[in-house]
Amino acid sequence: MRSYNITSVIHKALGFQAVFKSSFQPNTYRAMSSISTPKPEVDRVLNYWFETGRTDKGKWFMGGEKVDTEVREQFGDLVDKARASDLTSWTQEPKGTLALIILLDQFSRNLFRGSPLSHTHDSMTLGIATRAIAQGWDQEVPHLQQQFFYLPLMHDENLVSQVAALALYDNYVARCLDKDEVENLALARTFCKQHLDTILRFGRYPSRNKILGREHTAEEIEFLKENPRGFVS
């Protein structure tokens, strides 16, 4: 188990956005964020993922074989391009960046479920998402869609990312003006806290050990018996 200085972690998490923002010139950011992305593929990804205009837990988090098949048939080629860094032009503005994050962070998990390949691009996606958040691009897309900028941080096996993700979710829930969605977002925030608690306890996600070829500790074996989903509850 890794050892963390929580005070240090929190200070780092609170400072990460300011640090990244300092590397951008305000005028450059504004010019970049005003660029439109005339790519039908971007709209195709976002229209599919946010088709209902509401929280879609069935598709997003419990899709199973049906959604996996849809993603493979409709977006398999785009996922391959994203993983080969052939869609970097999408990161020139918020909407395209969000679509790229969904390809890498969500659709890769659909296509490579249960395989180490589902995690091979997590580090790259984390960098894309963090850079976008630092520029405030998460708040330049519709509110419901903003949480997908935060999921790469929640998926990262690093406590600093976890603390930052939870802070972002707290702010995200507070900004919600849709009373019908508040409960769903509060549940998402709870799920984020469970991820943080798991990393705080183990320094990694025990549920990933098998597919990543990692040995379980005795504590992790007992934990997974009691928490088959793999998260502190």
From TrEMBL:
Residues passing through the membrane, by range: none
Species of origin: Amylocarpus encephaloides
Pfam families per the UniProt record, alphabetical: DUF924
Name of the molecule in the record: DUF924 domain-containing protein
InterPro entries, A to Z: DUF924, TPR-like_helical_dom_sf
Gene3D superfamilies: Tetratricopeptide repeat domain (1.25.40.10), TPR-like (1.20.58.320)
